[in-house]
Structure prediction request, 124 residues.
Amino acid sequence: MPNLLKVKLDETTNPWTVDVEQKDDANHVPRGSSSQTITWQLHGNAAAGDIAWVEWIIQPPSGVFGTPNISHNGNVLTISDLNDSVASTGDWPYQISVTLNHQTYYTPTDSDDGTTSNPTIKNK
Prediction:
């Protein structure tokens, strides 16, 4: 499945954080004339959890990304990406949260300005 991002919990941090695996450039979306689907799937130590929400840290232009859709069992999130022009090109950092055993975990943010450069969707 193209653009599949595996999501787990990083137990080496305190508190634990959400880790989005972007291996093999799974977060890179090439330009095309039709929407492409990006999928986040909980796996490993997060597999029994639920994706709570996703939020753009840098707001992409209107119409680039569709409305996030979380599966009924909560462990898969999909969003459409219409990367069809120069205006949709860019690096779009986001934050995602996962709830597991009544605890919510987040992707890490930089302590200085509250933003992060990882994870990102890279529209090429």
